[in-house]
Specification:
By secondary structure, the protein is an all-alpha fold. The protein has a domain of 36 residues. It has three helices and no strands. Helix 1 packs across helix 2 and helix 1 crosses helix 3. The longest helix has 16 residues. The protein starts with 6 loop residues before the first helix and ends in a 5-residue tail after the last helix.
């Protein structure tokens, strides 16, 4: 699934995961649902991931 992303999108997800720790998926979903992902670091890239993957797809994503 990660191969569907650009290298920039994959890097943004990796940075987000590194900063957020074990709860990174739930924190990313919270940003997506609240619309605050646009204010997050790499927000545009994270929103692109949301638009292509969706919330349900995030659950099975391995990084």
């Amino acid at each position: 699934m990660a191969s569907e992303f650009t290298s920039e999108q994959s890097a943004a997800l990796s940075r987000f995961k590194a900063k957020q720790g074990r709860q990174w998926k739930s924190r990313l979903i919270a940003l997506w649902v609240s619309g605050r992902d646009d204010r997050a670091e790499d927000g545009a890239l994270l929103r692109q991931v949301r638009n292509s993957l969706g919330v349900d797809g995030l659950a099975s994503l391995k990084i």
